[in-house]
Amino acid sequence: MRSFESELAALEQVSLRRSLSVFQPLGSSSLTSPLGQPLLNFASNDYLGFASSPELRDFLLEAVASHGAGSGASRLVCGTSQPHADLESALADFKHSEAALAFSSGYATAVGTLTAIASRDDILILDKLCHASLIDGARLSGATLRIFPHNDTARLESLLLWARRSANPNARIVVVTESIFSMDGDAAPLAEIIRLKDEHGALLLLDEAHGFGIFGPGGRGLAHALGLAHRVDLHMGTLSKAAGLHGGFVCGPRAFADLLINRARSFIYSTAPPPAIAAAATRVITSLLPGPLGESARARLLENLSLFSSLSSLPLPASPIVPIILGPESAALDAATALRAAGILAPAIRFPTVAKGKARLRLTFTASHSPDDIHHLVTSLRHLPAQSTHAVDVPANP
Questions:
Q1: What is the residue extent of each domain of the chain?
Q2: CA-wise closest residue to 215 among 319, 106, 308
Q3: In what order do the strands lie in the sheet with 24-25?
């Protein structure tokens, strides 16, 4: 029988072993390492800086005082409280949907949704770079799974033609993609994907995890920004990134939400999220995101992305996520170590999160970064180890 130690040693040998580090936040864009070193944080998904904002802290403290800490039971037992109902109503209104359902995490949302709406006779068609939660949900559903190359709408069309020919009349065909991809930061060609799914009688499940709060009026997401939200069948999102809290959600028709209540195992068999989190999230959805604070945070984020583009001579990023693809896992680890020595946290992203040979630094920008922070980042990128610099397309100073 193989030992746990031997498996860890094998991971170590190919630069894939991971470990946890305990960081102490110093503010919205910096933290302290386990050794006490102050670090600029270019790894967080707190894109608008809400997680450490005084407004959100006050919301949460008020909610704990009013609703306590835990929920005590699953939603179908006695765990559903008024804050949960209020949050789902606010999310449905915000996303212009009939109904919404909140989950304990984004992962639980993806797995619960896909296993609830798809089974053996159905067909799920996923973008190759979909998040692991979507892939896991698709596999667990038992449906026939097909993958199209990233953002390749020609291949998607051929798979939809095949699915329509192959599926029985009652089969559900679902296209699954992200609006903003979590590791590459690029956007899906939503207009063409929507045209194709409509033409071939499929549904679209759109994961807006990294678009929610950032794009569109009030931060409703990329589909709203493009005027296409009404043609998206099922909207997924998270409260743990731009919203600054925790949990996931999905929006769609009322019958869809009711079906999830009856079939989504990650919803049925999980203790309900703390009511205080739900109450604070409702305040974020109804006041912070669409209000002046949300608008100013999105403006600062765009300014920071523009500054990075100007200083680095790279194109304006499509989102707050900027990958610096280095290739070998060892090169990504060396680059991350060099940045940490320069006072920057940007961990190496490696297989299986990304494909083998596509290891990278995943830089994330927030509204809380200062111009000095971004100047320091660009300077540090230009001084990465020699074995990495060939892959980092940041021109040297003139």
A1: 9-41+295-389, 54-288
A2: 319
A3: 24-25, 30-32, 38-41, 344-345
Q: What is the pLDDT of residues 319-373, one digit of tens each?
A: 999 999 999 999 999 999 999 999 999 999 999 989 989 999 999 999 999 999 9
pTM listed for this prediction: 0.93
Active site residue 168: no
Half-sphere exposure of 78 (CA within 13 A, CB side): 2
Per-residue tokens: 260: 């999830």
- Per the annotation, the verdict on 393 as an active-site residue is no
Nearest Cα neighbor of 154 from 191, 196, 186, 126 is 196
> Is 241 among the residues known to form the active site?
yes
Q: Of 182, 240, 266, 312, which one is the catalytic site residue?
A: 182
CATH of span 54-288? 3.40.640.10
Right CATH for 9-41+295-389 from 1.10.8.60, 3.30.420.10, 2.40.50.140, 3.90.1150.10: 3.90.1150.10
* Catalytic option among 86, 157, 207, 329: 207
Whether 98 is a known active-site residue: answer: no
List pLDDT tens digits, range 97-146.
999 999 999 999 999 999 999 999 999 999 999 999 999 999 999 999 99
The answer to whether residue 383 is catalytic is: no
Cα(48)–Cα(300) distance, integer angstroms: 9
Find the helix packing angle between 106-117 and 254-263, rounded to 10°: 100
Give 251-297 pLDDT, tens digit per residue. 999 999 999 999 999 999 999 999 999 999 999 999 999 999 999 99
Helix or strand holding residue 299 (H, E): helix 292-312
Q: Any catalytic annotation for residue 45?
A: yes
Among candidate residues 15, 33, 45, 330, the one labeled active-site is 45
Active site residue 210: yes
